[in-house]
Amino acid sequence: MFMFENLQVYQKSVDLAEKITSITHDFPKGYFYLTDQLNRAILSVTLNITEGNGRWHKNDRKHFFYISRGSTQECVPILELCRRKKLISDEVNME
Description:
- The radius of gyration is 14 Å and the shape is elongated.
- It has helices at about 10-25, 30-55, 60-85.
- By secondary structure, the protein is mainly α.
């Protein structure tokens, strides 16, 4: 087991990525642009947490964690657009 696998933020990001990829799997084909962008953004969260944790220097780690946070924020407007287009319901819980 790698050290990052013990991090709660890593575990939650993998859980969220799994949930989002399951949700987007059923999106109509005409919404591929949303599916692709959302899946890439949520995967970027987990990958950057992982890569940052593997860096030796504090500033390198922080850089990847900032990218991860940015990817998290990128998901918010995409999910809002999905909600407005009725691809996901208001009741979908992302936690």
